């Protein structure tokens, strides 16, 4: 089906996520807008006045206390959005400018300034910047200090809100009026009514008890937030230490196992040396039947080959000259007992058959077997029948080994420097990378466009071969 030439498919525009500082500033300005909106609402004050009228008409102190409580609640609501608004704005500016001091300076300066600006306006029920407001500013500083290690601003906001609620109760305590508490119009009206109704002492007691109760809960909340954060950090540290100890135990076991294998292999050289020596003695004996000489030579070559393998196992620097074809054959001989060997397809470039390299055949073949095993397990991890390709390509100066699979790709399975997964053969990709670097080569890992992973190893050919 042909596409309409007149239409082009437009790619959706990329919208970068908001930075943390941007979202904090938005939250701060939104809180300030809510504060300004609440300032224009007069209905809650009408409710306070209605309760005061009922208290005056009936002489019932319950209406008076209800009016005082409603006033405290409404004043707290206004104060919370103002304080939290500048609290968030300060945090956002501190993150944006990388100046931590702004997180404290902004609310300390902006909150009193907001009260002074409102004092110049003829707003209904203007908030009074009295002692509780000053205590609120100090609370912002205190809570910021106490909860500096507490993640999440909402936790700090909760502590600030509770503390502000406690301070607002001091505004309705008649005994504290002369000290700068509760000079707002409605607060003064409530306290004057309490004096007229002879409920001054009860209102003092109610305000102080409410203040102490809410303040205690605020301090406890702040302490719990700090303790919970410290506990979480402690648990994270313990888990990190446990992971580190597990890694050390694994490394210790691996090192001990490797050392035991090295000792065992080293012990094999002694009887092998004896075998080679006896074969030499038998071959040089005039009484040895000549028709068995070829069998003796085969046995001697096998013993010498095994001795070379042991040397390569014991020393990574042990090398011998071999052909690419011999390496592939050696790898497939090791793969043949494994269940995935029938899924491995080998492609040997025509110009590779006689190319020679100098390498530690045992270690390098083990690295290739490890990659083939990982490729098989990658395919099985997504319940696919493994399709594995082992290919060798040669040019004038280098040989390239390519291992390709039909698994999910490296991003979902393994990373270049990780240990082997699924208990695979060898010591993982870190081992493979180490072996490749020992031979002066390089290794790369990519995902195929059609799916699956591709591992590419480049090695230099023997110098005579590259000319």
UniProtKB/TrEMBL annotation:
User: Which ranges does the record mark as transmembrane?
Assistant: 21-42, 62-89, 101-121, 127-146, 158-177, 205-227
Q: Which reaction does it catalyse?
A: ATP + protein L-histidine = ADP + protein N-phospho-L-histidine
Q: Using the record's annotation, list all stretches that form the Histidine kinase domain.
A: 263-463
**Which EC number(s) does the record attach to this protein?**
2.7.13.3
Q: Fetch the InterPro entries from UniProt.
A: HATPase_C_sf, HATPase_dom, His_kinase_dom, HisK_dim/P_dom, HisK_dim/P_sf, Histidine_kinase_KdpD, Sig_transdc_His_kin-like_C
Which keywords does UniProt give here? Answer: Kinase, Membrane, Phosphoprotein, Transferase, Transmembrane, Transmembrane helix
State the coiled-coil residue ranges.
none
Task: Write down what this protein is called.
Answer: histidine kinase
Give the organism, scientific name: Thermovirga lienii (strain ATCC BAA-1197 / DSM 17291 / Cas60314)
């Amino acid at each position: 089906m042909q596409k309409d030439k007149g239409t082009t498919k437009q790619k959706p525009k990329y919208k970068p996520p908001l930075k943390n500082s941007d979202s904090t500033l938005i939250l701060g300005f939104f809180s300030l807008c809510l504060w300004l909106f609440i300032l224009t609402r007069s209905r809650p004050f009408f409710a306070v006045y209605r309760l005061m009228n009922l208290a005056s008409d009936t002489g019932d102190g319950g209406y008076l206390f209800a009016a005082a409580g409603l006033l405290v609640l409404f004043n707290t609501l206004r104060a919370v959005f103002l304080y939290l608004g500048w609290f968030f704005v300060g945090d956002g500016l501190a993150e944006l400018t990388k100046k931590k001091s702004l997180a404290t300076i902004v609310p300390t300066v902006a909150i009193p300034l907001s009260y002074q600006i409102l004092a110049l306006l003829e707003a209904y029920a203007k908030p009074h910047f009295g002692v509780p407001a000053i205590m609120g500013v100090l609370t912002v500083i205190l809570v910021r200090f106490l909860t500096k290690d507490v993640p999440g601003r909402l936790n700090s906001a909760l502590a600030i809100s509770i503390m502000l609620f406690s301070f607002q109760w001091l505004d309705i305590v008649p005994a504290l009026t002369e000290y700068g508490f509760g000079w707002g119009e409605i607060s003064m009206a409530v306290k004057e009514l309490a004096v007229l109704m002879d409920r001054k002492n009860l209102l003092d007691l109610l305000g102080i008890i409410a203040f102490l109760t809410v303040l205690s809960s605020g301090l406890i909340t702040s302490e719990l937030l700090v303790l919970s954060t410290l506990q979480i950090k402690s648990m994270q540290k313990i888990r990190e230490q446990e992971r580190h100890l597990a890694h050390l135990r694994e490394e210790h076991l691996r090192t001990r196992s490797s050392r035991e294998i090295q000792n065992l292999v080293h012990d094999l050289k002694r009887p092998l040396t004896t075998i080679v020596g006896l074969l030499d003695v038998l071959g040089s004996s005039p009484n040895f039947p000549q028709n068995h000489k070829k069998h003796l030579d085969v046995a001697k070559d096998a013993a010498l080959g095994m001795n070379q393998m042991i040397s390569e196992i014991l020393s990574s620097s042990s090398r011998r000259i071999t052909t690419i074809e011999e390496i592939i054959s050696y790898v497939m001989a090791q793969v043949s007992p494994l269940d995935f060997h029938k899924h491995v397809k080998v492609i040997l470039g025509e110009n590779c058959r006689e190319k020679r390299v100098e390498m530690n055949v045992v270690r390098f073949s083990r690295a290739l077997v490890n990659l083939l095993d990982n490729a098989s397990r990658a395919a099985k991890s997504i319940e696919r029948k493994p399709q594995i390709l082992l290919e060798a390509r040669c040019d004038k100066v280098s040989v390239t080994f390519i291992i390709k699979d039909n698994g999910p790709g490296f991003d979902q399975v393994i990373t270049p420097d990780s240990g082997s997964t699924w208990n695979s053969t060898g010591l993982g990709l870190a081992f493979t990378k180490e072996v490749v670097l020992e031979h002066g080569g390089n290794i790369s890992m990519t995902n195929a466009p059609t799916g699956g992973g591709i591992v590419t190893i480049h090695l230099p050919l023997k110098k005579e071969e590259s000319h």
